[in-house]
Amino acid sequence: MPIVRYFPAEGAPVLASLHKPVTTLGRALGNDIAIPDASVAHHHAQIVFNGRDFQLEEVDRDAEIQINGKKKRRARLVHGDRITLGRASLGFGMFTELDSPASQPGSAQSEGDIAGLRRLHAFSERLMTVSSVDELLETLLDDVIQLTGAARGVVLLVDIGDGKSTAPRVRASRNVQSGALEDPTGAISDSIVRQVIDTKRPIIVSDALTDTTFGKSESVIALKLSSVMCAPLLSQGETVGALYVANDEVKHLFERRQLDLLTIFAGQASLILQNAMLLSALRADKEKLQGELQDKRFGEIIGACASMMEVFRKLAKVAATDISVMITGETGTGKELIAREIHRRSNRANGPFVTVNCGAIPENLMESEMFGHVKGAFTGAIASRAGKFQQADAGTLFLDEVGELTPQLQVKLLRAIQERIVFRVGDNRPERCDIRIVAATNRTLEDMIKTGEFREDLY
Known about the structure:
Low-confidence stretches: 96-108
Structural class: alpha+beta
Shape: elongated
Mean pLDDT: 82
Distance between the termini: 78 Å
Strand order of the largest sheet: 2-1-11-10-7-8
Radius of gyration: 36 Å
Number of helices: 11
Helix content: 25-40%
Largest sheet: 6 strands, antiparallel
């Protein structure tokens, strides 16, 4: 099994298995292998498996990578390679029952390490399918208890406010029968948990009652503790809790490799809790923003300045009537949003809202597009077709970029607006249309009237 070990400046090495086609490494918490070292880039490198070999590749061109002391941008990894990202030190290895670095082939320790990695791999896959934080934490505790031989396990959280942490509270607890503890708070040593939280380092207590550090602790004496392991839960360098396992029946139960395994699972628990906290924060931010926007929302339009409030006032006043409306403004200022809001607040809200972009339709097709045509009216008219005026019946017709209309079409549009009657191309039968006209333009129609480009009576 391919393994990457990260060797922090302080504390035990962190072990990570490579079970994905692409494994990312960097300081950002979203990486598959997060390295809390300031010299490491947020997205430093990645390890790619092509079906045969593992290859380390750069992600950040400014980030330094060394393989066995030599600068590289890309290199095939082999067992025993020493990797340096910034100042962070890592190692790559292929560990199996035949070449385990910790034991002889087939030994109990080798099998235990492989079982631990398999469970870690299975748990990592489950992260993608299970959304319940409590269910994930309980599964994690069950795996840790079975792998370490502990009798019980607890995940504790610390609430941090004003720079000060409160007493740890139990988030999840399990016993060897895969059930919740009846009194999880009374099953842990406060002094051991507090030291782990304060130092941010995992610890093993092989015989708590005779331990020089914790032997006189009231909780240790009261619980008659024997073997205890505890690892911190870290988020962005801060301790947010602890993963605690214990067995009161067996002394010297836990070994250093089991503490390494506990630390790895603590990293998974940290990831779960951090994601949950981030999701909770995002939901809170969303609710806050929605509340703030609600006070500044006018239908689908958002604004709070004095000029926008004046627009809203005029819009509300005009929308209640059935008069035609002209909206002017630069391109991209939201003229169609205003038109839609006029329609939505009018007595035609249940009718259609039909848009015509007068500047996007060729001149020879504009009359047919606006008023429709009958079959055979021109080449290609294989069937009768209703125009935008007919489609907008009992609703609102929005004429965008109305300043682009030709003088000939302006005459026909003026008649249609005045009489609410249109004639399809190729037909002499009038069709009555009950519509409201809302038009928009980014051009100055007063100047166009002076030059004869736009009809004054239509304006």
